[in-house]
Amino acid sequence: MYVGTNWKMNKSCAEARQFASVLRDRLNPSVFSTVSVFVIPPVTALTQVLQLKEFGVRLGVQNIFWEASGAYTGEISAIQAVDAGASVIEIGHSERREMFGETDYTVARKVKAAVDAGATALICVGETWDVYQTGRFVPFVQGQTAIATSLVTASQLSNVWIAYEPTWAIGEGSDPAQPHDVRDVHRGIRQELEYRFGHKGSGVPILYGGSVDGSNATEFLSIDDVDGLFVGRYALDPERFVETIEVVNRYVANYAGTA
Ligand code: PGA
């Protein structure tokens, strides 16, 4: 199981150090044998939390550009992200799609750059409320998944994770998706990956994100093809992130292998 958080455009360097020290103090490192934990700070704070890497937490960045280097003011490359300590590269979050012109095609190029650099591409997919209301959201998300992974080879698939995050379930004032919809979409993503990549598609972790908190985490984890959770604002508080990791750890201990 996987659990991670993206801080978005939040936290100073001092707050990042504080978050890291709470994790180190409160988390029993034995959780890392069953739960893969990752933290995606803003790039300004990445070096402040490097100690988490030695502790067992993977670090990430929230975006990259697909070129390796050059005159691209304001951008960072996958190679630079890896060099700075990231091993997870988040790509195509809905806020980037909605506010910064990210498309399925730019996502595909960034995914290729990330895996070529040896990082794990964490691809965010998910429909808008308008698409959800049409009832055709499963094929929509399958289409996003197909394009996002179109430049990746089967042998690179071990460096791909998917996060299903319906845009309407994200952020303050939103409600999480219904478990039966999450089940249908995750199954659809899995089928799409298996159709494209055969049995290698079966091993790609598919995480759910969108208003996840300590009270609903177990319900999402118990859905077929949900391999983990991607938590936003609830996990900005390190105590709550620890609590969420512990929920996942308990779930694995109690239920794994019994389903
Ligand atoms: P949220 O954000 O948990 O605050 O809804 C989720 C996300 O954007 O990944």
The bound ligands are:
2-phosphoglycolic acid
Tell me what portion of residues adopts beta-strand conformation.
Answer: 5-15%
**Spatial order of strands in the largest sheet:** 1-2-3-4-5-6-7-8
List segments where confidence is low: pLDDT < 50 over at least 5 consecutive residues: none
Total DSSP E strands: 8
> Pairing-aware structural class of the strands and helices?
alpha/beta
Mean pLDDT: 96
The percentage helix is: 40-55%
The end-to-end span amounts to 14 Å
Order of helices and strands: EHEHEHEHHEHHEHEHEH
Overall geometry comes to: globular
What is the C-alpha radius of gyration, as a whole number of Å? 17 Å
Number of helical segments with 4 or more residues: 10
Major sheet summary line: 8 strands, parallel, barrel
Please give a handful of descriptors for the protein shown.
single chain; 259 residues; alpha/beta; eight-stranded parallel barrel; binds 2-phosphoglycolic acid
Q: How do you describe this structure in short?
A:
Helix content is 40%, strand content 14%. The chain has 259 residues and is an alpha/beta fold.
Structural overview:
The protein has 259 residues and is an alpha/beta fold. Helices cover 40% and strands 14% of the residues. The chain contains 10 helices and 8 strands. It has helices at 13-26, 51-55, 78-83, 94-99, 104-116, 129-134, 137-148, 179-197, 217-221, 238-255; strands at residues 2-6, 36-40, 58-61, 88-91, 120-125, 160-164, 206-209, 228-231. It has an 8-stranded parallel barrel with strand order 1-2-3-4-5-6-7-8, surrounded by 4 helices. α1 runs parallel beside α10 and α7 runs parallel beside α8 (179-197). The model has no long low-confidence stretch (mean pLDDT 96). Residues 6, 165, 170-171, 209-212, 230-234 line the site of 2-phosphoglycolic acid (PGA).
